[in-house]
């Protein structure tokens, strides 16, 4: 069943429907693979192996009776451990929630299950999803499957590492400042941060109420589109869920980019940056040009505001969401995460209000750019995965904190509340993945997916899998 481990979700779903193999065979293959390599990766906090086998058997029984639950029928999933799952421990990566068992599913988890998805477990995450590196003082940092001494990226670290390692073909992550796209880039998989409000956040541990998003991570752009069809539903349980026109995200997926204008920002994006990353992304943009897209340079001077606005909003809202936890149980938390929450308590209401006002101007500036172009293209992360102990990266003539290097570009699309995908576009000389980020206007997620699919139709970066080193 090695070919199953390397297959996309859509290939697995098609194989199950055509009865080339059963869901139980598929789920068992992924479980066996994870049994062998999980000790080297650490992608899971909780594995639900017996429950998964039982659900796979139910899926096979339904199919035998002529009933399919949907496009994910019998397909294995990993769920970031900030998503509620009924009767399953949801730790949010924190020792404080090690015994928390929700009484209902998060809306996104419910929709995945209703479409036939089989949950293999809850995946590792930074405590309360508040760091982009993947570090977790309680459950450990997952190892990057491409090189186990490197960071996987976070905070959806376990989902990213698990997909790359072949533990499941698709999973759920969340993204407040880049937490889907950063691990997608560093682990060499595909991931999308959808338009803010497109996917319900009910039943997901909050961090920043005005920036949090949820979305799928997978091997291919096609898988992201299929999953988005399942997840993009208005939910009255989430006050930020936006009513929107139903879209089939697979319908335009193969239309190519011949009619697209792709904008490449000239400010902010390219300095500081790792030279191999810049080269790989520039080559990827040239591939899109060869496919018929018009590449244009665009000026967005407001991008220089990115770090200050993002820090002010995220830390203030995080402090508001978890103030009591930090005050009452701070000594039991990861102390670096605790300090980040505490810093938000010192942001004044005036500073927060100014940051939100600036965010609106920032979003307006990007909206005007999207009147001229269909897509914005840039690197996802400024450098490939550094060693796990790294605190500072040297990029060109600049020394930059790892956290800042990771968040520098992804935050652009959180602040604008617009969709962006990360897809693999090459490898460094050390064999570490590099990601291309493609953004589009609000509720035009299909355009980003369409551009990503065009790129993946003529490249094979997304089909490569790591040879996992056994942990010593």
Oligomer: single chain
Order of helices and strands: HHHEHEHEHEHEEHEHEHHHEEEHEEH
Percentage of residues assigned to helices = 25-40%
Number of helices: 14
Measured by DSSP, the beta-strand proportion falls in: 5-15%
How far apart the termini lie comes to 27 Å
- The CATH superfamily is identified as Amidase signature (AS) domain
The fold-level CATH name is Amidase signature (AS) enzymes
Radius of gyration: 20 Å
Number of strands: 13
Main beta sheet? 11 strands, mixed
Shape: globular
Top-tier CATH class: Alpha Beta
Low-confidence stretches: none
Please tell me the CATH architecture by its name: Alpha-Beta Complex
How do the strands line up in the largest sheet?
A: 1-3-2-4-6-5-12-13-9-7-8
Mean pLDDT: 97
The total tally of domains equals 1
Structural class: alpha/beta
Provide a descriptive summary of the structure in words.
With about 475 residues, the protein is of the alpha/beta class. Helix content is about 40%, strand content about 15%. It has 14 helices and 13 strands. The strands form 2 sheets. It has an 11-stranded mixed β-sheet with strand order 1-3-2-4-6-5-12-13-9-7-8, sandwiched between helices. β12 (about 420-425) and β13 (about 435-440) form a beta hairpin. The longest helix is centred in the last third of the chain and has 24 residues, at about 305-330. It is globular and about 60 Å long.
């Amino acid at each position: 069943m090695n070919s199953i481990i390397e297959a996309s979700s859509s290939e697995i779903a098609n194989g199950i429907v055509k009865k080339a193999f059963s869901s139980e065979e598929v789920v068992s293959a992924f479980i066996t693979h994870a049994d062998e390599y999980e000790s080297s990766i650490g992608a899971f906090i909780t594995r639900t192996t017996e429950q998964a086998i039982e659900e796979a058997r139910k899926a096979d029984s339904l199919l035998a009776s002529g009933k399919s639950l949907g496009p994910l029928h019998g397909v294995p999933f990993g769920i970031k451990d900030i998503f509620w799952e009924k009767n399953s421990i949801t730790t949010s990566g924190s020792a404080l929630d090690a015994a928390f068992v929700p009484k209902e599913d998060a809306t996104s988890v419910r929709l995945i299950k209703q479409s036939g998805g089989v949950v293999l477990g809850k995946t590792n995450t930074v405590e309360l999803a508040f760091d982009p590196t993947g570090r977790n003082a309680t459950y450990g940092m997952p190892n990057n499957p491409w090189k186990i001494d490197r960071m996987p990226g976070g905070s959806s670290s376990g989902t990213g590492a698990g997909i790359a390692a072949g533990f499941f073909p698709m999973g759920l992550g969340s993204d407040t400042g880049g937490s889907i796209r950063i691990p997608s880039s560093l682990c060499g998989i595909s991931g999308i941060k959808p338009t803010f409000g497109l996917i319900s956040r009910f039943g997901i541990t909050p961090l920043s109420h005005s920036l949090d998003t949820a979305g799928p991570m997978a091997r291919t752009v096609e898988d992201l589109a299929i999953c988005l069809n399942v997840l993009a539903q208005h939910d009255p349980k989430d006050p930020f869920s936006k009513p929107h026109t139903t879209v089939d995200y697979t319908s335009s997926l193969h239309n190519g980019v011949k009619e697209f204008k792709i904008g490449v920002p000239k400010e902010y994006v390219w300095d500081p940056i790792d030279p191999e990353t810049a080269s790989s992304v520039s080559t990827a943009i040239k591939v899109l040009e060869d496919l018929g897209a018009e590449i244009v340079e665009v000026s967005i001077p407001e991008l220089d505001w990115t770090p200050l606005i993002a820090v002010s909003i995220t830390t203030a809202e995080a402090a508001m969401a978890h103030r009591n936890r930090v005050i009452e149980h701070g000594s039991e938390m990861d102390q670096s995460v605790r300090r980040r929450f505490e810093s938000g308590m010192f942001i004044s209401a005036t500073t927060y209000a100014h940051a939100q006002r600036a965010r609106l101007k920032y979003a307006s500036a990007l909206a005007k750019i999207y009147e001229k172009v269909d897509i914005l293209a840039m690197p996802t992360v400024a450098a490939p995965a550094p060693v796990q102990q790294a605190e500072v990266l040297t990029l060109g003539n600049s020394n930059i904190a790892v956290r800042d290097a990771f968040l520098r570009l992804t935050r652009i699309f959180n602040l604008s509340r617009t969709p962006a995908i990360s897809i693999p576009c090459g490898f460094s000389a050390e064999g570490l993945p590099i990601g291309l980020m493609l953004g589009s206007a609000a509720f035009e997620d299909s355009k980003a997916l369409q551009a990503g699919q065009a790129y993946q139709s003529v490249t094979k970066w997304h089909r490569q899998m790591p040879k996992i080193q056994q942990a010593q």
